[in-house]
């Protein structure tokens, strides 16, 4: 599939930028990340077979931003921000090889990372079913992946108790 | 967390793009229309999309993306800045309290290039930058919606993102409108085109309740301060004064930052 970056950006760029703003809480970093999202599309267009680009770009933006947040020192500004940071910094062995893993996940060679799934479910408010559909897993698969981020989830359970 | 009674942002994006299965799209649109602010959120999202495409034109973004993709490492390290703030102690006045600063220039920067053929996009929409003088040496950057209180001394700055003229006003929970910049004259002030620039004076928040909202209006051509003041006066005192946009001519761009006042 060949990608016209300009046409893709015209249609999806604002959505991607809003997503990056939401996760990074910094306009300059968000714009930078937005460009990187489209770089991923351009460089790997040969592997792109997605019929719903908005869903794919939402995931790419989430993953790109989580990778940028990993190790970043920020002061959480609200609960959602804190949650994103917790998820981004949580131990997720699948995501350690971030660059290779990102591309593999984006193009379906391996399932989405637990961290991506956690953001979709815990921060974006997708139901387990919606999350499962978003990342191409079963609901039980999503539950299993969420358990991989046990530290974050335990903390959330303590907060909810 | 997202309220189950409110269409989440990710779904709002899909609705705007029409990228849902037909049945789901119709149902999602119907639910959105029943929500108190549903259609307004959709309209705001679409307006934001238009503003993004104006600020970051597709051709320019495509060039930047292609330039980055041509480099061996797609991910570029962030350009980091270190603002140097110099708020001075405050002196009380009746409402917003004025503090002189030795210099309005805070920071400018150019991202490090990766070769002469690369045109680095500044990539910023005009925005407000507000810091609160803290007990510690380093002022605290305040985000939209941050809590603030009477007595807080705040420094307002702007990023022009290429706009050439601007006006900064504020509205508060008492319905008062304050002109912050320009300090004099009937015309919008000339803006520094790049970097973050603080206004020459900082302000102490008074005891107005509920909120203090700063609005930065900018344009590529000169415009009258009176246009902005009239729009601010028209909005002040209304129930949605803390969030609604000013009604302005189409050539003017506006961005705002609201501080939530604590008792």
TrEMBL record, chain A:
Transmembrane segments: none annotated. InterPro entries: RNA_pol_sigma-70-like, RNA_pol_sigma-70_dom, RNA_pol_sigma70_r2, RNA_pol_sigma_r2, RNA_pol_sigma_r3/r4-like, WH-like_DNA-bd_sf. Keywords: Sigma factor, Transcription, Transcription regulation. Gene3D superfamilies: 1.10.1740.10, Winged helix-like DNA-binding domain superfamily/Winged helix DNA-binding domain. GO terms for molecular function: sigma factor activity. It comes from the Bacteria. One of its GO terms (biological process) is DNA-templated transcription initiation. Residues 9-75 form the RNA polymerase sigma-70 region domain. Belongs to the sigma-70 factor family. ECF subfamily. PANTHER family: RNA POLYMERASE ECF-TYPE SIGMA FACTO (PTHR43133), RNA POLYMERASE SIGMA FACTOR (PTHR43133:SF51). This is RNA polymerase sigma24 factor. It comes from Corallococcus macrosporus DSM 14697.
Automatic annotation (TrEMBL), chain B:
It comes from the Bacteria. This is ActD-like protein. It comes from Corallococcus macrosporus DSM 14697.
């Amino acid at each position: 599939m060949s990608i016209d970056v300009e046409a893709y950006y015209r249609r999806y760029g604002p959505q991607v930028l809003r997503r990056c703003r939401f996760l990074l809480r910094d306009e300059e970093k968000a714009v930078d990340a937005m460009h990187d999202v489209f770089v991923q599309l351009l460089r790997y267009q040969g592997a792109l077979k997605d019929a719903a680009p908005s869903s794919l770009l939402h995931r790419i933006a989430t993953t790109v931003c989580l990778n940028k947040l990993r190790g970043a020192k920020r002061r959480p500004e609200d609960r959602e921000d804190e949650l994103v940071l917790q998820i981004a910094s949580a131990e997720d062995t699948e995501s350690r090889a971030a660059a290779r893993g990102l591309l593999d996940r984006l193009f379906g060679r391996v399932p989405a990372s637990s961290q991506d799934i956690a953001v979709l479910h815990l921060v974006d408010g997708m139901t387990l079913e919606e999350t499962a559909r978003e990342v191409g897993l079963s609901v039980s698969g999503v539950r299993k992946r969420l358990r991989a981020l046990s530290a974050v989830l335990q903390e959330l359970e303590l907060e909810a108790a | 967390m997202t309220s189950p009674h409110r269409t989440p942002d990710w779904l709002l994006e899909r609705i705007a793009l029409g990228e849902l299965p037909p049945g789901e799209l119709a149902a999602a649109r119907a639910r959105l229309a029943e929500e108190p602010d549903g259609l307004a959120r959709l309209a705001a999202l679409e307006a934001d999309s238009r503003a993004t495409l104006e600020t970051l034109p597709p051709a320019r973004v495509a060039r930047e993306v292609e330039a980055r993709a041509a480099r061996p490492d797609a991910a570029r390290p962030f350009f980091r800045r270190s603002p140097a703030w110099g708020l001075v102690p405050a002196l009380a006045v009746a409402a917003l309290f004025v503090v002189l600063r030795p210099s309005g220039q805070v920071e400018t920067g150019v991202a490090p290039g990766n070769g002469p053929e690369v045109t680095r996009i500044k990539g910023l929409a005009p925005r407000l930058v507000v810091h609160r003088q803290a007990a510690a040496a380093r002022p605290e950057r305040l985000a939209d919606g941050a809590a603030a209180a009477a007595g807080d001394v705040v420094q307002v700055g702007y990023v022009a993102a290429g706009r050439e003229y601007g006006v900064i006003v504020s509205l508060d929970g008492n319905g008062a409108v304050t002109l912050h910049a320009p300090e004099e004259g009937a015309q919008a002030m000339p803006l520094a085109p790049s970097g973050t620039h603080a206004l020459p004076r900082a302000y102490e928040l008074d005891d107005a309740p509920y909120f203090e909202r700063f609005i930065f209006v900018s344009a590529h051509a000169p415009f009258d301060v009176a246009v902005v003041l009239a729009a601010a006066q028209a909005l002040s005192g209304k129930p949605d004064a803390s969030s609604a946009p000013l009604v302005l001519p189409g050539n003017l761009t506006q961005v705002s930052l609201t501080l939530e006042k604590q008792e």
